[in-house]
Amino acid sequence: MTPLHRNSFRMKRVALRRRARHISVVLVVLVCATVGIWTWDTAPSSAFLPPQSRFLKLQTEEEVRRIPSGLNTETKGSYSSATPFVNKAETKEDSTIEQVEHEVVSEPKHGKTPTSRENKLQQVKREVAIRKDQTTKTTHIKETHSDPERTKQFVAKKDDVSTSTARFPNQACNYAKGKWVVDNHRPLYSGSHCKQWLASMWACRLMQRTDFAFERLRWQPKDCSMEEFEGSKFLTRMKNRTLAFVGDSLGRQQFQSMMCMITGGKERPDVLDVGPEFGFITPEGGGRPNGWAYRFPETNTTVLYHWSSTLCDIQPLNISDPLTEHAMHLDRPPAFLRQYLHKINVLVMNTGHHWNRGKLNGNRWVMHVNGVPNADKKLAALGNAKNFTIHSTVSWVSSQLPRHPGLKAFYRSLSPRHFVGGEWNTGGSCNNTTPMSIGKEVLQEESSDYSAGHAVKGTGVKLLDITALSHIRDEGHISRFSLSASKGVQDCLHWCLPGVPDTWNEMLFAMI
Ligand SMILES: *[C@@H]1O[C@H](CO)[C@@H](O)[C@H](O)[C@H]1NC(C)=O
Ligand SMILES: *[C@@H]1O[C@H](CO)[C@@H](O)[C@H](O)[C@H]1NC(C)=O
Ligand SMILES: *[C@@H]1O[C@H](CO)[C@@H](O)[C@H](O)[C@H]1NC(C)=O
Ligand SMILES: *[C@@H]1O[C@H](CO)[C@@H](O)[C@H](O)[C@H]1NC(C)=O
Ligand SMILES: *[C@@H]1O[C@H](CO)[C@@H](O)[C@H](O)[C@H]1NC(C)=O
Questions:
Q1: Which of 294, 300, 303, when mutated, tests ligand 2's pocket best, judged by the most ligand atoms within 8 Å of its CB?
Q2: Which of 2, 11, 225, 457 has the fewest Cβ atoms surrounding its Cβ within 10 A?
Q3: Which ligand ends up closest to the CA of 239?
Q4: How far apart are CA 243 and CA 508, in angstroms?
Q5: Quick one: which of 481, 509, 485, 484 has its CA closest to 495?
Q6: Rounded distance, CA 156 to CA 242, Å?
Q7: SS3 for 497?
């Protein structure tokens, strides 16, 4: 063999080997894909879910909660002196209440409007992403409730998206899809300085925590740019308007986050407490009012929060009995909404973690439907009751929209919990402090909160879909650093502020 021959022989061998390697790579990919799709079909809810994803399971009933009666009811009594700001005393009292709650708790600016061709392209990209998702064990969150029915909807929804894009250019962007990136311009306020609005129980800068990498993350939506939040821009946009958060303690976190974001965490002695205008008064005997409302005088912008843990109407059955049972009207929106909706321009509702038997029993709440005690056993199951109420309240709000042309209504999807190895009261923990260790990207089209996604479908209420993006932020909870929790009890439900709820508000800002 001449050297030339030898050389070409070697080259052929190399080429052959390459081809063989190529074929085996293709084979491996194919096998993976098949197995992936197969697993997905047979066990869609668990195939590639990190174990923590069970948070989407309906609330268990063993969680016990006791909250002072009266806290959750519409407060009666006379307005004496509104606490102008979140002062020390209020915060302290709060933490006691929240400790209870905690123990329970185990409680556009668009880049551009895509043309229809770009939409097709996006759709193809989406499908590729989905397929990639199924074949590789990447960190993308899966819908926990996938089933064949669901898949059909999923496809149908994609078509919806392209048609609705043409009609509502501002809704083209799905802000829920995207990734977390490190950004040195975060956080938007200081957790040690925003004392006026931020309760110390949520300010992780005031705790023993030493790792603050979680504060530096920014959410970057995939198919659009998200307008940078600026307090002054927010206030200008909200001139003469009112933003209302109505929901549980996670809603309250979003409210405090918003107040800190607007003010940049700076003292604002000029901001007015207008709680009494919305019926927020400190009950006699000094409990917690059932909400807070503040007004920025320069733009006449009001930001408020109303406590409604289950987003339905709660009525005492016997007003003169302090230990009375309460009718929990699953099919009626909170009285606050019926009374004040005309004063609200942007409404953000949420519920979720309070739907457990312990809390209902502790509060003496009795489910009612059509004004009478519920006799439907199926509906009495907490997951069904919760789903029913979310649907009822969302559709009631939607029905009110024509009467309130200035109103934009949002339902905020479930904020995920991250208890590992137990519940809040059985040693559950969330010890990780390293951001993005369980993932950094969300590519799914539909919300991980199936109930919320289903409830807003076909209504005028928009979904503020924060579930999947918050799910990959397991390091952002208060965890073992809680000031008020008893030893060994971790808070893997509430978030450190500044933190994840700031992102919910950035999305909200981009959507209004
Ligand atoms: C705000 O409301 C006041 C009183 O109704 C009105 O005079 C003013 O023009 C309004 N400002 C804007 C920007 O709409
Ligand atoms: C503030 O805004 C409200 C509407 O939200 C309006 O009724 C009221 O007149 C405004 N007040 C002033 C002083 O502009
Ligand atoms: C309501 O409660 C009061 C005080 O406990 C009691 O005297 C009264 O009989 C109750 N009324 C009804 C209708 O049960
Ligand atoms: C939730 O409630 C709606 C409306 O009542 C119903 O159509 C839907 O099937 C329910 N979903 C679940 C998961 O129960
Ligand atoms: C989290 O840390 C606590 C102690 O701080 C420990 O008891 C617990 O086992 C840890 N949890 C996990 C899942 O590692």
A1: 300
A2: 2
A3: 1
A4: 11
A5: 481
A6: 36
A7: strand
Q: Three-state SS for 51?
A: helix
3-state class (DSSP) for residue 178: strand
Ligand 4 atom at minimal distance to the Cα of residue 145 = 13
Check if 433 has its Cβ closer than 6 Å to any atom of ligand 5: no
Instruction: Tell me the residue length of the chain.
Output: 512
Helices 148-167 and 116-135, axial angle in degrees (round to 10): 150
Beta bridge partners of 217: 182
Contact 267, 207 (CB under 8 A): no
Distance 429 CA to ligand 5 centre (A): 6
Question: How far apart are the CA of 260 and the centre of ligand 4, in A?
Answer: 37
User: What's the CA-to-centroid distance between 300 and ligand 2, angstroms?
Assistant: 6
The rounded Å distance from CA 418 to ligand 4 centre is 26
pLDDT tens readout for residues 239-270: 999 999 999 999 999 999 999 999 999 999 99
Asked, as a colleague might, if the bond just before 187 is cis with ω within 30 of 0, I would say yes
d(C-alpha 55, C-alpha 430), whole Å: 13
Which residues lie closer than 8 Å to 159 by C-beta, 6 or more apart?
A: none
Are the CB atoms for 350 and 107 separated by under 8 Å? no
The upper half-sphere exposure of residue 133, i.e. CA atoms within 13 Å in the direction of its Cβ, equals: 22
For 27-52, what is each residue's pLDDT tens digit?
444 333 433 333 333 333 333 333 33
Is the Cβ atom of 239 under 6 angstroms away from ligand 1?
yes
Interatomic CA distance for residues 280 and 75, integer angstroms = 8
Put simply, whether the predicted model's pTM sits higher than 0.85 gets the answer no
